[in-house]
Amino acid sequence: MINFITMSCLLVALAWVAILNIFAYPVSKKLCIRISNYIVKVCAHRVFAILNLYKNFRFDDDAASKKLLPEQFLVISNHQSLMDIPLYMVFLPEKDLRFVAKDSLGRHVPLVSEMLRAHEHCIIPRKGNPSVAMRELDKFALRVKERDQIPVLFPEGTRSKDGSLGQFYAAGFRRLTDAVHLPVAVCALEGGWKINNLKNIFTNLKDGSYRVKVLKVFPPPNGKEEQNAVLNEAKALIGAQLDKWRTEEKA
Known about the structure:
By secondary structure, this protein is of the alpha/beta class. Helix content is 51%, strand content 15%. The chain has helices spanning 2-24, 29-55, 84-91, 113-118, 130-147, 170-180, 198-204, 223-250; strands at 58-61, 74-77, 97-102, 122-124, 150-153, 184-190, 209-218. Strands 1-7-6-2-5-3-4 form a 7-stranded mixed sheet, with helices on both faces. It is globular and about 50 Å long. The two termini are 30 Å apart.
């Protein structure tokens, strides 16, 4: 019964705005942006509030760790679920976040696709000529620098199905850091992989949690050697934090 109530509340909170944005996007970009702003500022918070109310699903953000953050920075993080996007919107509500996402998310994903396109997030083609992806990153970097936005990159490139930490790919990270030349904030998140499909939502929501923490902020890396060093240390830091959280959960 609680599962039914939870899903019903989520549908009421999200379905109407998702449908409205689908119809708004081809008609008026300004209207679509307004709706997308509502999704970011209101709906993202509402999702976690509903999950907490009906399933005691907690959003545990390490607020103290945010004191490490400068005014503008690049976020790199592990990736576990589509819910990672609203997670960071709730974690950093005062910042104007822009995500690097694969092109499949820019099409036919309710609530997500129109928002990504209207807000000019970076949509990267997964197949074809790699130079096309690099050009998209260059254009994205120019936009976020000019608009004082916060770019968010998931170096794994895809969501982890079981929470394990995958390979961190360097090409996109190096291209983006070359272009934006911003401090790099390394963040870890945990919990999304447990609710990354409908079956897991019904079985793992109750008394679950979604955690996020800023682990370290690096100065802007200069050149390939520094960039690779930052990426390697970032993966080690995230892996250690995931191990710590999971050990605490078992205790």
